[in-house]
Specification:
21 strands, alpha+beta, single chain, five-stranded mixed β-sheet
Length: 523
Amino acid sequence: MSRILCVWSPNWAIETWRRRRPSAPQAEPFALASLSRGLRVLTAVSPQAAAAGLFPGQGLTDARALRPDLVLAEAEPGADARALEALADWCVRFSPAVAPDPPDGLFLDIGGVSHLWGGEAEMAADLAARLARDGLTGRIAVADTAGAAWALARSPAAAAGPQVLASRILEPGGTEAQPLAPELAGLPTTALRLEPAAVERLARLGLRRIGQLAGLPRAPLAKRFGTKVLLRLDQALGRAPEALAFRRPPTPWFARLDLAEPVSAPEDLARLCRDATLRLCARLEASGRGARRFRLDFHRVDGAPVGLELGLSRPARDPDRIARLFLPRLESLDPGFGIEAVSLQAAETEVLAPGQSDLASLLEPVEGPEALAPLIDRLTARLGARRVWRSRPLASHVPERSVHRAAAREAQAGPAGGWPAWRPRPLRLLPRPEVLEAVIALTPDEPPRQFRWRGRVHRIRLAEGPERIGAEWWRTGIEAVRTDQVRDYYRVEDQDGARLWVFRSGLHDHDRPVRWWLHGLFG
């Protein structure tokens, strides 16, 4: 059975603003403001400001009139969103499936992992205590559904307590109980995540509690208030599914090591990396699978996760090879005050059956893509995926459209399985064709005998061609095709042995002189 833990920080914007400025004075009452529809309004208020009668959405002029001593700062929603994503990454220590609930909450799927803390209550208490040590208010609830956990965490009963409260836990099956469990039946309709207008319409008919809605006939309720009310009610009670956008999609290929004492020495980090790799690769080997992507996370004592990602050109499960690719990058990690846990996750797994090698294959060198895979992986691990790439053929006769830049780890070779051998072309083309000057040819239809390029004169000894390439009329329509779009390509060699790829644009016309261009160089 799925169990969802919801974390809500009611003062998230205020607390994260102060965490980003630890030296700022803790003046009260304090609020954050932003521009909304041409007016300055409060977006977040501290508990002291709320006690003084201020609230989010209040106009700044009204707030100043009520409390002239109000301390104001500019809201930073972008920074708050990034902080929430960082908190979601930090919560991976509790569950591999964490979904942000902007702007101030999280969902954790703790089904099957809470026993590692001794139970759901102990797990929630540990999470709340860690948040409190970092200066964050955490209100936590656990239920079978995300909707029920969200409602319990934000219910008025929870809001009436101290800053960090005992978690509210709804027993398994509590959302499906008949009659409805008192913990849910007594919650207000605002706990169903409805629009304010829908809540107001329900209140006019005296429907202020979830238990009242659950006891009404569904058809009249949907006809009068819309299907959104029924959907939210069904999601809270487990009658309708709700998809959570996990920041890291849950995967069974996951290994974690918890330490009794924090470590920070480079050799200790290397040993942790290898131990986690051994554990995960053993599971992959037992299942006959390999992975193309790995993510290694070191969880620091101060709560900041430090992660490394590794991509492979071919699926693998060799722990020695994978650990060696991670080791050079460990030098760039900042362990802070120490690492207390490490986790390794595999993605893009594939079936990887072991192969039987005969004696001849062991004596002969490995050829093909398998030979380049280790080199590509080492270069990618050291330089980054964007700096290691390869050219791939595309189905087009136009040279600049027949090649595209692809990741070095990409497995697909191309539309025809490789490069066409019947039309030799340079491996690298110029970014754009460059015009040739002072071109001399015996006749207009023959290749050039001499030209000047980049200030240097080239005298041609040998020439081969032409290879005629017309415009791809199907891209723009045949009425747009003109004769000056035709290209005649030649492979030429100059007096110094340099081989060049040149072309003449357009067909010979006495009224329009042709132009010559250099498009690439061989070798």
